[in-house]
Amino acid sequence: MSTLGAEKTEDCEQETGFSIFMIEFHTKSVIINNNQNRHHASDHRLVLLTRRFASIIHQPYRRMLPDHYVLGKQKKEMGMQDTTFRENVVIITGASFGIGQHLALQLAEKGAWLALAARSQEKLNAVSELCAKLGGRVVAIPADVAEPALCQHLIERAVQEYGRIDTLINNAGIGMASRFDELQDLTVFEKVFRVNFFGAVYCTHYALPYLKETRGRIVGVASQRAKFPSATADAYTPSKHAMVGFFDSLRIELADSGVSVTMIYPSWVSTGISTRALQRDGGQTGTLSKHEKNAMPVEVCARRILKVVAKRQREDIMTFQGKAGLWLKLIAPKLVDEIARQSTE
Fold first, then answer.
1. Is 236 annotated as catalytic?
2. Are 115 and 251 members of one domain?
3. What is the side-by-side strand order in the sheet with 217-221?
4. Catalytic pick from 61, 206, 236, 265?
5. Residue 1: which domain range?
6. Domain count, the chain
7. Which listed residue, 174, 181, 182, 328, has the most CB atoms within 10 A of its CB?
């Protein structure tokens, strides 16, 4: 499948499914409103409706648009080369695999000057070599973003190499797969927060003076789960909620500085993150989530991120279901809770 086709062509399937859902939602709302005292019947209908909506949320990412549309789009993009990131100094954390790796590769093709950070020097070197072959200028800087001193070194090393910072992409993150009430202590919980939340805060803190000088861009790669509750109180969802709260507030603080803050909310992406999620003992799950098997291709996700970052957009909620879920959360929060519970593996 063409990733361009995959990127643009799920809407017909999603809109059809959601139309069915809306009909069911309206019908059952009338029934429930006319029988307010029949709580058990209402709860039963709510469960049925939840299962229907949950099945829509996890539809496979597979439908394509007609070939003539895809080809026309490709021709249009070939004739309109975006120079936004040419010689743009971009720092990417979590750049050794997944979304970070593909952001680096696509930015290299655009002629960006890259400072790539991750814990593994070997993996960073491999990605750096690929970026150099694609035309990008690149420096690999090993760093664990959970350590503030290493975040400071990352920023200073990038400035030493390029003389400035134009874009900071806070992408590093780890998952967690454990119930809160199963934790013997909070060691793993705190580790996830140090990477997902404080790692982004540390890097932003040290980079901000340079970003103000260039009127640059700050990017936070969060998760769709940062907009909704999760069925388990592991550290992943709370850390992403904290990340969003910080960057949304920072956006207001920096309103007159010329620095933009863009938040990214992907749903499941084919990165293998579920296999590396931490269990209560600190070990990785080693198991691929069923949701990730039909997830958005990582190169499609990276392309979309760069598109919204180039335009300095406020945020990008990447799925129709996520956008619809925000509306549903306002009028039926209990239903959203049920959807989260039904969707948990």
1. yes
2. yes
3. 137-142, 113-118, 89-93, 167-170, 217-221, 260-265, 315-317
4. 236
5. 1-80+320-345
6. 2
7. 174
